[in-house]
Amino acid sequence: MEKYVLITGATSGFGRACAEIFARSGWNLIITGRRLERLNLLSGELSAFGIQVLSLNFDVQDAHAVEKAIQNIPTEIQNNIEILINNAGLAAGRDAFQDGNFSDWERMIDTNIKGLLYVSKPIIKMMIANGKGHIINISSIAGKEVYPAGNVYCASKHAVDSISKSMRMDLVKFGIKVTNIAPGAAETEFSLVRFKGDENLAKQVYEGYQPLSANDIAEIVYYTANLPKHVCINDLVVTPTAQASSTIFNK
Ligand code: NDP
Ligand code: 8X3
Protein backbone atom coordinates (compact mmCIF):
# COMPACT_ATOMS: atom_id res chain seq x y z
CA MET A 1 0.00 0.00 0.00
CA GLU A 2 1.54 3.31 -1.11
CA LYS A 3 -0.80 5.73 0.60
CA TYR A 4 0.45 8.29 3.12
CA VAL A 5 -1.19 10.23 5.93
CA LEU A 6 0.48 13.46 7.08
CA ILE A 7 -0.11 14.24 10.75
CA THR A 8 0.97 17.55 12.28
CA GLY A 9 1.80 17.47 15.99
CA ALA A 10 2.49 13.73 16.12
CA THR A 11 4.86 13.92 19.10
CA SER A 12 2.07 13.84 21.69
CA GLY A 13 -1.63 13.41 22.41
CA PHE A 14 -4.10 13.05 19.54
CA GLY A 15 -1.41 13.24 16.84
CA ARG A 16 0.66 10.48 18.34
CA ALA A 17 -2.39 8.26 18.90
CA CYS A 18 -3.47 8.85 15.28
CA ALA A 19 0.02 7.95 14.06
CA GLU A 20 -0.16 4.65 15.94
CA ILE A 21 -3.60 3.67 14.75
CA PHE A 22 -2.83 4.47 11.09
CA ALA A 23 0.54 2.68 11.31
CA ARG A 24 -1.07 -0.43 12.80
CA SER A 25 -3.43 -0.50 9.82
CA GLY A 26 -0.58 -0.32 7.30
CA TRP A 27 -0.67 3.35 6.33
CA ASN A 28 2.62 5.07 5.59
CA LEU A 29 3.17 8.19 7.64
CA ILE A 30 4.57 11.68 7.50
CA ILE A 31 4.87 12.81 11.10
CA THR A 32 5.71 16.33 12.19
CA GLY A 33 6.52 18.22 15.38
CA ARG A 34 9.12 20.49 16.97
CA ARG A 35 10.57 17.97 19.44
CA LEU A 36 13.12 16.15 17.30
CA GLU A 37 14.06 13.52 19.87
CA ARG A 38 10.44 12.44 20.26
CA LEU A 39 9.95 12.43 16.50
CA ASN A 40 12.95 10.16 16.06
CA LEU A 41 11.82 7.78 18.79
CA LEU A 42 8.31 7.65 17.38
CA SER A 43 9.60 7.11 13.89
CA GLY A 44 11.54 4.03 15.09
CA GLU A 45 8.52 2.65 16.97
CA LEU A 46 6.17 3.13 14.03
CA SER A 47 8.56 1.63 11.49
CA ALA A 48 8.21 -1.63 13.42
CA PHE A 49 4.74 -1.93 11.85
CA GLY A 50 6.48 -2.43 8.50
CA ILE A 51 5.45 0.93 7.09
CA GLN A 52 7.39 3.89 5.70
CA VAL A 53 7.78 6.85 8.08
CA LEU A 54 9.01 10.28 7.03
CA SER A 55 9.71 12.70 9.92
CA LEU A 56 9.55 16.44 9.33
CA ASN A 57 10.88 18.61 12.12
CA PHE A 58 9.47 22.14 11.93
CA ASP A 59 7.52 24.75 13.83
CA VAL A 60 4.18 25.35 12.08
CA GLN A 61 4.42 29.02 13.04
CA ASP A 62 7.39 29.44 10.70
CA ALA A 63 5.99 29.83 7.18
CA HIS A 64 9.39 29.49 5.55
CA ALA A 65 10.29 26.32 7.47
CA VAL A 66 6.92 24.76 6.62
CA GLU A 67 7.33 25.60 2.94
CA LYS A 68 10.85 24.18 2.82
CA ALA A 69 9.97 20.95 4.64
CA ILE A 70 6.94 20.28 2.45
CA GLN A 71 8.77 21.11 -0.78
CA ASN A 72 11.46 18.60 0.20
CA ILE A 73 9.03 15.69 0.49
CA PRO A 74 10.11 13.28 -2.26
CA THR A 75 7.81 13.46 -5.30
CA GLU A 76 6.74 9.82 -5.09
CA ILE A 77 5.50 10.49 -1.56
CA GLN A 78 3.86 13.81 -2.52
CA ASN A 79 1.91 11.89 -5.14
CA ASN A 80 0.51 9.56 -2.51
CA ILE A 81 -0.53 11.88 0.34
CA GLU A 82 -4.18 10.97 0.79
CA ILE A 83 -4.90 12.41 4.22
CA LEU A 84 -3.77 15.53 6.07
CA ILE A 85 -4.58 15.66 9.77
CA ASN A 86 -4.18 19.27 10.89
CA ASN A 87 -3.73 18.56 14.57
CA ALA A 88 -0.78 20.67 15.84
CA GLY A 89 -2.13 23.25 18.22
CA LEU A 90 -2.23 24.55 21.72
CA ALA A 91 -3.77 26.81 24.28
CA ALA A 92 -1.41 29.21 26.07
CA GLY A 93 -2.78 30.50 29.36
CA ARG A 94 -6.31 30.77 30.62
CA ASP A 95 -6.55 34.42 31.57
CA ALA A 96 -9.48 36.80 31.50
CA PHE A 97 -9.21 38.98 28.42
CA GLN A 98 -8.04 42.02 30.39
CA ASP A 99 -5.22 39.97 31.94
CA GLY A 100 -4.09 38.17 28.78
CA ASN A 101 -0.70 38.76 27.24
CA PHE A 102 0.20 39.38 23.62
CA SER A 103 2.78 36.61 23.40
CA ASP A 104 0.24 33.93 24.45
CA TRP A 105 -2.30 35.35 22.01
CA GLU A 106 0.21 35.45 19.18
CA ARG A 107 1.37 31.89 19.87
CA MET A 108 -2.19 30.58 19.67
CA ILE A 109 -3.06 32.56 16.54
CA ASP A 110 0.24 31.73 14.85
CA THR A 111 0.02 28.01 15.65
CA ASN A 112 -3.68 27.17 15.52
CA ILE A 113 -4.66 29.40 12.59
CA LYS A 114 -1.63 30.51 10.61
CA GLY A 115 0.24 27.21 11.05
CA LEU A 116 -2.76 25.27 9.80
CA LEU A 117 -2.98 27.55 6.76
CA TYR A 118 0.75 27.26 5.97
CA VAL A 119 0.61 23.45 6.00
CA SER A 120 -2.73 23.12 4.24
CA LYS A 121 -2.11 25.18 1.14
CA PRO A 122 0.82 23.22 -0.34
CA ILE A 123 -0.65 19.86 0.67
CA ILE A 124 -4.01 20.74 -0.87
CA LYS A 125 -2.23 21.70 -4.10
CA MET A 126 -0.69 18.21 -4.11
CA MET A 127 -4.06 16.58 -3.42
CA ILE A 128 -5.66 18.49 -6.29
CA ALA A 129 -2.88 17.30 -8.59
CA ASN A 130 -3.35 13.74 -7.27
CA GLY A 131 -7.12 13.93 -7.87
CA LYS A 132 -8.02 12.87 -4.32
CA GLY A 133 -7.55 13.76 -0.69
CA HIS A 134 -9.05 14.22 2.75
CA ILE A 135 -8.31 17.07 5.14
CA ILE A 136 -9.14 16.41 8.79
CA ASN A 137 -8.96 19.54 10.91
CA ILE A 138 -8.81 19.17 14.69
CA SER A 139 -10.82 22.08 15.99
CA SER A 140 -12.41 21.95 19.45
CA ILE A 141 -15.63 22.36 21.38
CA ALA A 142 -13.98 25.78 21.92
CA GLY A 143 -14.60 26.35 18.21
CA LYS A 144 -18.33 25.86 18.73
CA GLU A 145 -18.87 27.90 21.88
CA VAL A 146 -16.86 30.14 24.19
CA TYR A 147 -16.15 29.97 27.90
CA PRO A 148 -14.84 32.44 30.47
CA ALA A 149 -11.11 33.14 30.01
CA GLY A 150 -11.15 31.09 26.81
CA ASN A 151 -11.11 34.23 24.62
CA VAL A 152 -8.27 33.91 22.09
CA TYR A 153 -8.03 30.09 22.21
CA CYS A 154 -11.78 29.91 21.48
CA ALA A 155 -11.38 32.46 18.69
CA SER A 156 -8.55 30.45 17.13
CA LYS A 157 -10.66 27.29 17.15
CA HIS A 158 -13.69 29.17 15.77
CA ALA A 159 -11.34 30.15 12.95
CA VAL A 160 -10.48 26.47 12.36
CA ASP A 161 -14.20 25.70 12.27
CA SER A 162 -14.76 28.43 9.64
CA ILE A 163 -11.70 27.42 7.62
CA SER A 164 -13.03 23.83 7.52
CA LYS A 165 -16.35 25.05 6.12
CA SER A 166 -14.78 27.24 3.48
CA MET A 167 -12.18 24.62 2.50
CA ARG A 168 -15.07 22.21 1.92
CA MET A 169 -16.76 24.68 -0.45
CA ASP A 170 -13.57 25.34 -2.40
CA LEU A 171 -12.49 21.71 -2.61
CA VAL A 172 -15.80 19.96 -3.32
CA LYS A 173 -15.22 20.23 -7.08
CA PHE A 174 -11.98 18.25 -6.71
CA GLY A 175 -13.58 15.42 -4.73
CA ILE A 176 -11.49 16.31 -1.68
CA LYS A 177 -13.17 15.65 1.66
CA VAL A 178 -12.95 18.06 4.60
CA THR A 179 -13.79 16.87 8.10
CA ASN A 180 -13.85 19.13 11.16
CA ILE A 181 -13.51 17.31 14.47
CA ALA A 182 -14.33 19.23 17.65
CA PRO A 183 -13.30 17.35 20.78
CA GLY A 184 -14.25 18.27 24.32
CA ALA A 185 -12.03 17.58 27.33
CA ALA A 186 -9.32 15.03 26.55
CA GLU A 187 -6.42 14.16 28.82
CA THR A 188 -3.22 14.76 26.85
CA GLU A 189 -0.37 17.24 27.36
CA PHE A 190 -2.83 19.98 26.36
CA SER A 191 -3.47 21.34 29.87
CA LEU A 192 0.17 21.02 30.92
CA VAL A 193 1.06 23.22 27.95
CA ARG A 194 -1.83 25.60 28.62
CA PHE A 195 -0.78 26.05 32.26
CA LYS A 196 2.89 26.28 31.33
CA GLY A 197 4.07 23.17 33.13
CA ASP A 198 1.92 23.52 36.28
CA GLU A 199 1.04 19.86 36.88
CA ASN A 200 -1.48 20.58 39.65
CA LEU A 201 -3.53 22.97 37.54
CA ALA A 202 -3.35 20.58 34.60
CA LYS A 203 -4.50 17.62 36.71
CA GLN A 204 -7.49 19.53 38.09
CA VAL A 205 -8.98 19.87 34.59
CA TYR A 206 -9.57 16.11 34.45
CA GLU A 207 -10.58 15.41 38.05
CA GLY A 208 -13.98 13.99 39.05
CA TYR A 209 -15.02 12.52 35.69
CA GLN A 210 -13.63 10.36 32.90
CA PRO A 211 -12.18 12.58 30.18
CA LEU A 212 -11.64 11.47 26.60
CA SER A 213 -8.32 9.79 25.86
CA ALA A 214 -6.11 10.53 22.88
CA ASN A 215 -6.98 7.08 21.58
CA ASP A 216 -10.72 7.83 21.70
CA ILE A 217 -10.12 10.69 19.27
CA ALA A 218 -7.69 8.69 17.12
CA GLU A 219 -10.28 5.96 16.63
CA ILE A 220 -12.84 8.55 15.52
CA VAL A 221 -10.34 10.19 13.16
CA TYR A 222 -9.52 6.77 11.72
CA TYR A 223 -13.21 5.98 11.24
CA THR A 224 -13.86 9.25 9.39
CA ALA A 225 -10.81 8.61 7.20
CA ASN A 226 -11.88 5.13 6.13
CA LEU A 227 -15.43 5.66 4.94
CA PRO A 228 -16.41 4.94 1.34
CA LYS A 229 -15.33 7.50 -1.27
CA HIS A 230 -18.84 9.00 -1.52
CA VAL A 231 -19.28 9.49 2.25
CA CYS A 232 -17.83 12.46 4.14
CA ILE A 233 -18.35 13.32 7.79
CA ASN A 234 -18.28 17.10 7.69
CA ASP A 235 -18.39 18.03 11.34
CA LEU A 236 -18.25 16.11 14.57
CA VAL A 237 -18.44 17.28 18.19
CA VAL A 238 -17.14 14.63 20.60
CA THR A 239 -17.23 15.03 24.36
CA PRO A 240 -16.81 12.78 27.36
CA THR A 241 -20.25 11.48 28.43
CA ALA A 242 -19.76 13.60 31.56
CA GLN A 243 -19.49 16.85 29.54
CA ALA A 244 -22.57 18.67 28.19
CA SER A 245 -20.89 21.93 27.14
CA SER A 246 -17.57 23.71 27.62
CA THR A 247 -18.50 24.49 31.21
CA ILE A 248 -21.12 21.91 32.26
CA PHE A 249 -19.65 18.68 33.66
CA ASN A 250 -21.07 15.86 35.74
CA LYS A 251 -18.35 15.85 38.40
P1 NDP B 1 -0.73 17.86 23.07
O1 NDP B 1 -0.11 19.03 23.75
O2 NDP B 1 -0.62 16.53 23.71
O3 NDP B 1 -0.16 17.76 21.57
C1 NDP B 1 0.00 18.91 20.77
C2 NDP B 1 0.85 18.57 19.58
O4 NDP B 1 0.94 19.74 18.76
C3 NDP B 1 2.25 18.15 19.94
O5 NDP B 1 2.64 17.06 19.15
C4 NDP B 1 3.10 19.37 19.60
O6 NDP B 1 4.38 18.94 19.15
C5 NDP B 1 2.31 19.98 18.44
N1 NDP B 1 2.58 21.40 18.31
C6 NDP B 1 2.22 22.38 19.17
N2 NDP B 1 2.70 23.56 18.74
C7 NDP B 1 3.37 23.31 17.59
C8 NDP B 1 4.10 24.12 16.69
N3 NDP B 1 4.21 25.44 16.86
N4 NDP B 1 4.68 23.54 15.61
C9 NDP B 1 4.56 22.22 15.42
N5 NDP B 1 3.88 21.39 16.23
C10 NDP B 1 3.30 21.94 17.32
O7 NDP B 1 -2.25 18.26 22.88
P2 NDP B 1 -3.49 17.51 22.17
O8 NDP B 1 -3.09 16.25 21.54
O9 NDP B 1 -4.59 17.53 23.13
O10 NDP B 1 -3.81 18.62 21.06
C11 NDP B 1 -3.90 18.35 19.68
C12 NDP B 1 -4.92 19.30 19.08
O11 NDP B 1 -6.20 19.04 19.64
C13 NDP B 1 -4.65 20.78 19.33
O12 NDP B 1 -4.95 21.48 18.14
C14 NDP B 1 -5.65 21.14 20.43
O13 NDP B 1 -5.99 22.49 20.38
C15 NDP B 1 -6.80 20.24 20.06
N6 NDP B 1 -7.76 19.93 21.10
C16 NDP B 1 -7.36 19.37 22.30
C17 NDP B 1 -8.32 19.04 23.25
C18 NDP B 1 -7.96 18.48 24.57
O14 NDP B 1 -8.78 18.58 25.52
N7 NDP B 1 -6.83 17.86 24.75
C19 NDP B 1 -9.74 19.22 22.98
C20 NDP B 1 -10.03 19.82 21.71
C21 NDP B 1 -9.07 20.13 20.81
P3 NDP B 1 5.76 19.64 19.52
O15 NDP B 1 5.60 20.24 20.89
O16 NDP B 1 6.76 18.53 19.44
O17 NDP B 1 5.95 20.66 18.44
C1 8X3 C 1 -9.62 21.94 24.30
C2 8X3 C 1 -10.90 21.81 25.02
O1 8X3 C 1 -12.63 23.03 26.44
O2 8X3 C 1 -10.29 23.18 27.12
O3 8X3 C 1 -9.81 22.47 23.04
O4 8X3 C 1 -11.09 24.40 25.24
S1 8X3 C 1 -11.24 23.17 25.99
Molecular structure report:
The relative contact order is 0.14. The model has no long low-confidence stretch (mean pLDDT 98). This protein has a single domain (4-238), classed as NAD(P)-binding Rossmann-like Domain (Rossmann fold, 3-Layer(aba) Sandwich), CATH 3.40.50. Strands 3-2-1-4-5-6-9 form a seven-stranded parallel β-sheet, with helices on both faces. Helix 1 (13-24) crosses helix 9, helix 3 (63-71) packs parallel to helix 5 and helix 5 (102-130) runs parallel beside helix 6. Helix content is 44%, strand content 17%. The protein is built from nine helices and nine strands. Bound molecules: NADPH dihydro-nicotinamide-adenine-dinucleotide phosphate and 2-hydroxyethylsulfonic acid. The site of NADPH dihydro-nicotinamide-adenine-dinucleotide phosphate (NDP) has 29 residues, from helix 1, helix 5 and helix 7.
CATH superfamily: NAD(P)-binding Rossmann-like Domain
Shape: globular
What fraction of residues sit in β-strands?
Answer: 15-25%
* Hetero groups: NADPH dihydro-nicotinamide-adenine-dinucleotide phosphate, 2-hydroxyethylsulfonic acid
Q: What is the overall number of helices?
A: 9
Biggest sheet features? 7 strands, parallel
Our count of domains comes out at: 1
CATH topology value: Rossmann fold
User: Mean pLDDT across all residues, rounded?
Assistant: 98
CATH hierarchy, class:
Alpha Beta
Q: What are the secondary-structure elements, in order, as H or E?
A: EHEHEHHEHEHEEHHEHE
Pairing-aware structural class of the strands and helices? alpha/beta
Strand order of the largest sheet: 3-2-1-4-5-6-9
